[in-house]
Amino acid sequence: MSVKQISVFLENKSGRLAAVARLLASRGINIRALSIADTSDFGILRLIVDRPEEAYRALKEEGFTVSLTDVLAVAVPDRPGGLAPALEALSEANLNIEYLYAFVARHADQALVLLKVDDRERAVKVLEEAGFKVPSPEEIYSL
Amino acid sequence: MWNPKAECLPREELEELKLERLKNTVRHVYENVPFYRRKMDEAGVKPEDIRSLEDIRHLPFTTKEDLRENYPFGLFAVPLKDVVRIHASSGTTGKPTVVGYTREDIEVWSEVMARTLGMVSASSEDVVQIAYGYGLFTGGLGVHYGAEKIGCTVIPTSGGNTKRQIMLMRDFGTTILCCTPSYACYLVEVMAELGVSPRELKLRAGLFGAEPWSEGMRREIESNLGIEALDIYGLSEIIGPGVAAECLCKEGLHIWEDHFLPEVINPATGEPLPPGEEGELVFTTLTKRGFPVIRYRTRDISFLLPEPCACGRTHVRMGRVKGRTDDMLIIRGVNVFPSQIEEVLLSLGYTEPHYLLVVDRERRLDVLEVWVEVSESIFRDEVRGLEELEEKIRREIEAVLGIAVKVRLVEPKTIQRSEGKAKRIIDRRDLR
Ligand SMILES: [Zn+2]
Asked: Can you give the residue ranges of the AMP-dependent synthetase/ligase domain (chain B) (predicted)?
C-alpha cells in the first residue's frame, strides 16, 4: 500500500523550486501534494504526483538529485483532532514517524495525510485496525 | 616488459651509466646553451667538477620562469635545423614554455613511452585509444609514438567529444585507454547516461596521468570499467609523458633513470632530501640533445622509493604525485591538497565525488569551505540524515587536515566539469 514519493535535493537559493515545478508542468505531470524540509543551506522537496516514475526520470535527466521514497497515505476525519487518534495508534504500536504532511485535496470528505514510517506494513495494519482508511496508491495518484 | 635489459639493468651498471650520461649532458649544455654556461659560471662550477652523481647538487636549479624568460628557443642546445618537433605548454599567464626535440630525442621519447605502455604488456594485439590532447600539448603525440613503436593499433581520438570516444571505444574494440584520470571518471559517468555497459567494451587497461589522482579514484575507475588503471607521469619540460610509470604492483612509479635523473628537495630551501621524504621533484635529463634540462623544478610533490620492486625492474620508484607546490593550498599555515579531500569522500562511500575547495579570507583569517555535490549515492530523504552526512564529512576532513573547515552540500553540476584537468580550487584570497 505504499505511495511513491519523489524526494529532490535542492539548494536554498531562489528559483530552484520553480525550476522543478516548471519541468513537471512541461511534461504534463500534476503535483498532488508537496512539502519542503529545509536547513539554512539546503532542503528536501517532497512531492506526490500523478505519474511518479515519469517525474523521477524527468528530474534525473534534468540533473537533479532525486530519489523515490515509499510513504503511506491515510484518510482521517476532516475536523479538529481528527489526526490525533491515528498518531496515537501508531505511537502505541511503537511505530516511528519520520515526517508527515497533508494533502490539499480531500478524499471522500476526509483529509489525507502522508506519513513516512519505519515499518510501513505494520503501520497499515495498525491504522486499519484503529478504523482508518488507507487509500491505495492508485487512488492517491488519481485524486 | 618492453625492454627487459634496460628496465632490469643491475643498479651498479645503472649508476655508472647515469654518471657518464650526466657528465655528457652537463658538458653539452655548458658548451651550447649560454644560459647554463652563465649560471654555472656564477655558481663557480665547471663541467669537469661533476665527478660523482652527488656532485649534481653543485649545479644551479632551472625553473619554469627560466624557461619563460628564454622564450622561445633560448634554451635549445642544438641549431633549429636539427630540431624536428616543437611542443609548448599553455601557460595560463604570460608566454608559453617551448621545448624542442631532435630526431634522437623523439626516439628516446618513443622508447620510454613504449616501456610505459609495456607496464600493461601492450603489444601489436592491442588497440590503444589516446584521448590526451594532440597538438602543442605533449600528451597525445607522446603516447602516440610509444604505442606505434610497439606496433599497437592506435586510435588518435585526442580529447573531447565524449560520446564519440565511447562509441569508438566500443566499435573499434579499444583495449587500452590513455587519458587524464578525471576524464576517465567523466567517461564512466557519460557511459552510464548513455546506457553503455563496460561489458560491451574490450577495455582491459588504462594509463592515466597529467594530473594528480588518488587510490580511491583508481578503485572507482577499476571497478566501474573492469580494468587495470595505472598512473603515469611526465611533463613537457622533461620530455612529456613517459618520465615514470607504475608497474602492476601499483606501489609507486618507476622513473626511467637511464634517461631522467630524479631528486627530491625541500621546496623552501632547495636542500636535497633523503629517500622516502616528501618534497619537490627535480629532474635532470640524461640523454636529450635538443632541449636538455638541468635540475628542473617540477613543482610536483612526491618522494623516492629506493627499495627493489617485486616486478623486477631496478629503476627507482617515486610515490604518486600528491599535488603541486602551486596547487597546494596553504591555509593557516597548513598544506592542503585536493587529493586529501577526495580520499575522505571516497572513504565515506561517495562514488565519483565532485567537490570544490573554496578559500576565502574573513577578518584576516583563512576560511576553507568544501563544496560537495549531492549525488544519488549519498542522497537520503531526511534532513537529519543529510545534516549528519555534512557533519561526518566535516569531521573526517578536519581529522585529516587538522584545520577547521565548512562543508556545504550543493546540487549536482554546480561544480564545473572539465574534459581535461579538473578544477578543484577557488582561491578568493588574492582578489581583494
Ligand atoms: Zn615494479
From this structure: 79-283
